[in-house]
Amino acid sequence: MQLANHHAHSCYSDGRLTPLDYLENALSQGLMTYGFSDHAPIDYEGIGAMTAEQLPEYLREVDRLKEDYRAKIEIYKGLEVDYIPDVISMKSQHIVDAELDYLIGAVHFVGNFPGGTPFSFEHSIENFERGILEIYAGDIKQMLRTYYGLIQDMVRLYEPDIVAHLDRIKKWNNNEKYFSEKADWYQNEIIETLEVIASTNCILEVNTKGYYRNETLEPYPGKWALRQARDMEIPVHLSSDAHHPDDITKGFVYGVEMLKEVGYKTYHILREGTWQPQPFLERKVYPV
After folding, report:
1. Whole-prediction pTM value?
2. Full 3-state SS string of the chain
């Protein structure tokens, strides 16, 4: 199994409890490495990201834990950074100045409502529908193409270490309520995005949050996309996107079995300061 997690959110952003609480849970499960990756500050209100004023405190806290626990576990300092053109990227000055060990690149915002309010497709199903109608005139294809286009631009321009939850935009699409995930046009968007990722040194995240939170029947991305990624030899990292310490390894048993099923033999984690491939361990220590 994978004895690491590099995607989690503490009380510094939209998670619960302190970084120490997460670290103690990681130690109790025998993890070899652990990465902190709260949401980077964005100049928007009410989105769950830390504030600019909190960032220095967050960085000091992770550095303190690194020092205090260096004999027990490898700890890495990261952020999940949204890509919003002309607003924030992996090269924004406050991100560069943070001197991080790694970056998770993500797209959660797909345009702006009339009046300028940013549209997060994650906020609620009502907000999702409102965005389709008010920004994209009811054209779900246009919204999805915009979403995958933003991921492609993020990867080409900034090459984050990890590309987060590739098909997260399907969060509200249970029973294919809004679009068919088997449609050629939709699968072509995923293939084109994977081709861009394959041309870089980025690692594709396999995010189990949708599965253990009962948002979807699969992780982000799902099995079909992971088969394409394996054929393109794109490296992967398994993560839980934990928002509570109890979630650090949730869904890992299922995620590992899916990765094996589609043909992966290794996953990547941070070890000794570099991203390294690791074989799957034959030890089921995680909650399903």
Report:
1. 0.95
2. CCCEECCECCCCCCCCCCHHHHHHHHHHCCCCEEEEEEECCCCCCCCCCCCCCCHHHHHHHHHHHHHHCCCCCEEEEEEEEECECCCECCCCHHHHHCCCCEEEEECCEEEECCCCCEEECCCCHHHHHHHHHHHHCCCHHHHHHHHHHHHHHHHHHHCCCEECCCCHHHCCCHHHCCCCCCCHHHHHHHHHHHHHHHCCCCEEEEECHHHHCCCCCCCECCHHHHHHHHHCCCCEEEECCECCHHHCCCCHHHHHHHHHHHCCCEEEEEECCEEEEEECCCCCCCCC
